[in-house]
Structures are given as structure tokens and as C-alpha cells.
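Input chain follows. Return C-alpha cells only.
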Amino acid sequence: MRKPEIVYLGHSNVIDRILKSKRPGEAMAAVDLSSVVKMTLTLGDLTLESTNQEDDPIRWAQEGYETGQIRIFLGGQDIKPGDYDAPLVVYDEGDEEGIVWGEDPYIEITVVAEVEAAGPE
């Protein structure tokens, strides 16, 4: 069982992932994301859309990133605290339907309310 990614609302924690793919007869390898034009991540009834801009919640193929690396910035988003199975959808140029990424297409995410404002229970 995988451990969920933790998102602290109001903070700058980042989820880092390397997107990999496997072609028949080959080993898993990081994917070149330079032709990707959009990604979406859905948490409950909220879908976040990114086009790889500086303030987008999902960023990829930027200076300093490894091949296949995405960084997900959710602390500043308006997400309700809770547990989510969040599918990531990747869109290449000319692909209007996108690809739901991964064999298990969900990133398990636990969103925690602003920890400094809440204080200990």
C-alpha cells in the first residue's frame, strides 16, 4: 500500500513525480514531456488545469527539471481538506482527449487544513 502525498494548505510543499512509460520489450523509462501542452489533476469535484505557466499548479519540462519530472503545487489552491484519489491526465499537441497517466491512474493525496492556524488539538 502506497503512502499518500500530504498537501498542507497555505504552504509551499511540492509533490515531485517522474512520469515513466514502458514500450513492449523495453524497461520503464522517463518520458520526454516537451510536447505536452496541458495536464489536469482532479481532486473530488475540483479539476485543476495547467498549461505549464510559472504560477500553474502543475509544471513540467522546465529548466532544472529531470526528464519526465512534474512538480505539483497544491498548497495555494482552494481544495477542501480530505483524502483524494486524484487522476492525472496528460495532453499532447492535437490530443483533445488526453491520456490518463499510469497503471494505477491515481495519485493518493491527503489535504490538510492550514496547520499554523489550526494549532494542536
